[in-house]
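RETRY 2/3 - previous attempt timed out on the joint model. Re-submitting the same 449-residue input unchanged.
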Amino acid sequence: MDCSQIRDSFMSGDRLSEEQLEAHLAQCPQCKALFERDAELGRSLAAQANAALPLPADFFEQIEQGLARETGARAWLRSRPSRVRFVFTLLLVLLAVIAGGVLRQRADFAQYPFLRVALLLCVYFVAIALAFAKELSELPRRNPLRESLPLLAFALAVPILAAFAPATELSRRAGAEGALNCFAYGALFTLPVALLLWAFDRNDRPSLRSVCLSAAALGLSANLLLELHCSNGNPLHVLLGHASLGVAWLTAWAAARGLSRA
Amino acid sequence: MTAYIAGDKAAFRELFRRYTPLLQRAMARDLRSSEEANDLVQQTFLHLHRSRLDFEPGRKLKPWIFTIALNLKREFFRRSKRRFETSLEDDRVAEPFEGPRGQERSDAAREMERALQTLPAEQREVIELHWFGGLSFPEVAEAVGSTVAAVKVRAHRGYVALRARLGDTAPDPDGVLAGKPSVVESK
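RETRY 2/3 succeeded.
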């Protein structure tokens, strides 16, 4: 005998064997609580669970109509398995990083030790993959902000921290100029990723969790390619042209959430 | 579900028939109108449709549907800026909506609904999924992303709190519980 059988017997009125019941109650405090005071709690819960609730006569038709509207490219994309959505998003990020960062790499790229570059790529990629995996999953979300805010904070902080890491002479001596160019460059290369992410989102209105995770992933992607492309390590330049991209994507996603509500 | 993924329309009707009452009962407790509950049930089926290719054959469908439903419900509360979390000290609870037989529902049933509303969200959620959603405790654990032991502890604490809340009320004044046979059969 298990807890579900006891619940079902309360709801159906079917009788249970006293011997089996006693054996179960002896090791199940939660079911025991249902039987105290003449089983008042168990019977009250069963009465609640058995109460009929109103259902519109055409409810099934309404749902069928909703499903019938699920046609077109976006409907097809958002219904792909989560694993596929994740891999395609990550591939597009990789393409953007290769096109914007690796093929057009910074002037002082060769002066940096391989280990440092590899470590930087790993940190960024792990964080980006984590953000996309969380964003595209259907797992239980008890506290969405607790799981998405650390990633967002990391996305906003990592370019600034990177600016204070040991750098080449070229990087250290640069001024704040060109921040707008970097901002536009990063935004342009991550725009296709943002569009794909929007197309993959199964919610009609982005959730707060989705806003934070998408902004974190896009901000990190933009900063990764700028890290490879831009040799300017001036803190003001990094703050205005690189780190601001995370904030910009956060604002854009929040605006999309607001617009879809309206 | 496998038939539905393969495109069998009759399979969807069966899913609807089987899960709509359970979803609706599990959704309805915290919402102020039947329209809100029905809207969330509708969204659950829409998400189920969009996520159908994520379903792995052999996996239990019920906890998976309820994971989708709970995520939607939590997001609904976040969007509407209404409280999902309530504390035992808080007596200002939302009035639950009335069903078709709302006028006939007894004070005892209403008292039970109110007592449920005053439970902390994590205890209420477990009790609602088990009793109104028809999930076993292992299924509840899967739907809320916790362990079986943890959800049983939450259920037990919730039951104790409910009994304390209901303890002050006169037992079954309007006969809601009358006529319910005893669940125990003597040997």
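The two ends of chain A are 51 Å apart (CA to CA). Closing ticket.
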